[in-house]
Amino acid sequence: MSIVSCAATAAVPAAAPRFAGLRRVAGPAALNRDVEQPSAVSLQVSGRSNSRASRRCVATMAGTGRFVVGGNWKCNGNTASIQKLVQDLNAGEITADVEVICALPMIYLPRVQSTLDRKYALSAQNCWVGAGGAFTGEVAAEMLVDNNIPWVILGHSERRALIGESDEFIGQKVAYAISKGLSVMACIGETLEERERGDTLNVCRRQLQAIVNCISPADWAKVVIAYEPVWAIGTGKVATPVEAQETHAGIRKYMAEAVSPAVASAVRIQYGGSVNAGNCEELARCEDIDGFLVGGASLDGAAFVTICNSARFNN
Question: Most Cβ neighbours (<10 Å): which of 56, 69, 81, 97?
Fold first, then answer.
């Protein structure tokens, strides 16, 4: 078995288990620890109003990549509902210049691969940190490549919280997936508690640093960063455009410092967290938002097509 080693990451004590990136967690409650809060969640933005003009002036270096929308179906659907969703997606007209990716439950990938229109690329929602072997329940990157699946989501907050994947483990997974030819939507984001104490960008930088430690500057051409504030995922809460733009600009500034200005400009940064057909246009207008990673709304074909077409507002 091959495991990617990132020399720049902190050394693991000798007594640690072989896969020290997996830590014991409290179970499903871990995902909800920070979201049972009043809906008035705000990131302090000094001296800035909610006007479009003030949103756009927050940018430090607007992204230059093609708008990209991912639909994360998570662990949802059955044969009948997925057949209906595929029909609705195929009937939808994508009129904007946008790259669209659908991330399916693993078991439905072959079925959808044969029926979904080619305007949508396919993605897995996870893959293992190394080559295949005695890892029950896992799927190797090589298997996805062998089945012509070009994308994978890694580092999603649900896997961080429920499975216990650490920053370092996710960095290794990203590196291994890229080394086998996959493109990666790499998820980062803070909990409500971290946001309220002013640690949003500290958390994002820490999570990204673990990936920076493991891949080369050239590898970032195969990575889309998906910023998903944990408190906004599936809760109906959503960061305001000011909040989202400021965080995305901060992420891009970090990438310029940690990797290079060229990579920072080219890397695409998605926003995820209760994106829907009603709020996508306003969010898409933000200069440092280069796309979306959509959860629940991706299960509604018409709504998802609307979100994809909001790319036309991203100038």
Answer: 69
What is the model's pTM? Answer: 0.85
Assess contact for 208 and 258: CB atoms under 8 A. yes
Q: How far apart are CA 302 and CA 300, in angstroms?
A: 6
* Eight-class DSSP state of 162: I
From residue 206, alpha-carbon distances to 70, 227, 288 in Å are 24, 13, 20
| Integer Cα distance of 54 and 246 in angstroms | 11
Taking the C-alpha atoms of residue 31 and residue 11, their distance in angstroms, rounded to an integer, is 28
Between the alpha carbon of residue 148 and those of residues 79, 108, 164, 250, the distances in Å are 21, 14, 29, 35
Residue 226 CA, chain-centre distance (Å), reads 3
Name 302's Cβ contacts closer than 8 Å, sequence gap at least 6: 88, 92, 277
Amino acid letter, residue 13: P
Q: Which helix (H) or strand (E) holds 69?
A: strand 68-72
> Cα(307)–Cα(63) distance, rounded to whole angstroms?
19
Q: What is the pLDDT of residues 186-242, one digit of tens each?
A: 999 999 999 999 999 999 999 999 999 999 999 999 999 999 999 888 777 778 999
In DSSP notation, 223-286 reads EEEEE--GGGTTTS----HHHHHHHHHHHHHHHHHHT-HHHHHHSEEEE-SS--TTTHHHHHTS
Residue 281 burial class via C-beta count within 10 angstroms: exposed 0-12, middle 13-18, buried 19 and up: middle
Residues 6+ away with beta carbon under 8 Å from 77: 85, 105, 108, 299
**Do residues 231 and 34 lie in contact, with contact meaning Cβ atoms separated by under 8 Å?**
yes
What is the distance of C-alpha 17 from the center of its chain? 28
Q: What b/e string do you get for 175-187 counting C-beta neighbours within 10 Å, with b at 16 or more?
A: bbbbebebbbbbb
* Dist CA 200 CA 281 (whole Å): 24
Element (H, E) at 308: helix 301-309
What is the set of active-site residues? 156, 228
